[in-house]
Amino acid sequence: MANLVYKRVSTDQQSTARQNLVLDEAGIEDPVFFEEDPGTSSRLHPLQRPKFGELLTYGRPGDTVHISEMFRLVRGNQHILDVLDVLHRDRLALRIHDGAFSAMDLTARHPRTGELLSTVKFMVQTLAAAGELQRDLQRELTYDGLRAAEAKGNKGGRRPGVPADKTDDVRTAYLEGRSIAALAREHRVSRGAIRTAVAGLLPDRTASEEAAPAPELPVTLDMPGKVADYLRTTELEPAERAALDQGVIVRRGQGYTLRVSAAPAVHRQLLDRCQPLDGAQGASAIPAQRKARREYENRVSALTP
Description:
Blueprint: E1 3-7, H1 17-26, E2 31-35, H2 50-58, E3 64-67, H3 77-89, E4 93-96, H4 118-151, H5 164-175, H6 180-187, H7 191-197, H8 207-211, E5 219-224, H9 225-232, H10 238-245, E6 248-252, E7 255-262, H11 264-273, H12 287-301
Parallel strand pairs: 1-2, 1-3, 3-4
Antiparallel strand pairs: 5-7, 6-7
């Protein structure tokens, strides 16, 4: 049985040092590590994170997932319950080594129904809500501290990558024809820091660039299983097929829903693809399939155009 260790930090300025300490003290035998790229947002659903997805693909029944504390993996109540459902489905154990959740068996299920025990579910929701409250309070205190600093004339944010006494030299060298890459190497800073230092000297953006619409951000919708089953047998565009293949299955009683993350335009295209489920060209529709399609249609219609 393998020991699968998952690590993540929220910003590229953080390190996994504390997580490493907790996990090292746990004495995990022959660990297999899965570490997200630095700065992987905690707002991203854990089932959509690349490395956690690799962990689930790698895992086999009987393996154990190890994390230093619950909030390295999940943040909100629904995220926790979704992850527990998937771990139960794949028959993976979960071991948390620090924090309030470390004293709980989160995998405990009713022996007959197989559902998560109500007491476990209650404790998970309660502790997760307490964690969210703590983070909200921290954000409020940080905001108050920044306002107090601004009142004293202090500016927040990072210090500039190029020191103030070097900025004029960088700007002069740029005007003389030195490239941004060369200046970055010379001053041992990133290219972005050089661009910031010479921002007023860079060519203006073209009108077409200014007018270009911002790309649509992915939206996560639950697609009824009957709709997903139909679409899998349909010819799809690459973007549509990718969204379907990357969907996360969430069991619902005897059926399931597919949690699909895609741009709103892709959701609308998928909805058009399953139009035959409503009945077409005189063919009678199956009531359950028609109902499933209309549920998906209601969710897609609620998206902002």
